[in-house]
From TrEMBL:
InterPro entries: Bacilysin_H2HPP_isomerase, Cupin_2, KdgF, RmlC-like_jellyroll, RmlC_Cupin_sf
Designated name of the protein: Cupin domain-containing protein
Residues spanning the signal sequence: none
Record PANTHER family: H2HPP ISOMERASE
Gene3D superfamilies, per database record: Jelly Rolls
Source organism (scientific name): Ensifer oleiphilus
Residue ranges of every copy of the Cupin type-2 domain listed in the record: 31-86
Highest rank taxon of the organism: Bacteria
Amino acid sequence: MSLPVFPATPTDTGITRQVLSHSPEIMVVSFRFESGAQGRLHSHPHVQSTYVARGRFRFFRDGVPYELKAGDSLVIPGNTEHGCQCLEAGELIDCFTPRRDDFL
């Protein structure tokens, strides 16, 4: 059985998003960042976990900064303001529950 291939989509300056897999209960997404790119502060009802596959990032969760490097992860509860700044070009693998239908 062949799984659908989702194209990489530019989301903001220096950032692309690619849905890797999903079901109604969970979604796995790759975000690729150029150095200096910023994931703007935002919130959503979904619980999110982020895993740094490569690169270095400064995350902000409810105003608290966290510096993460390859191999680190962070959980972001639903409805929590968060964002990040890419300090060294890299990739984040994010899981959302439930699925982010706005990404499809």
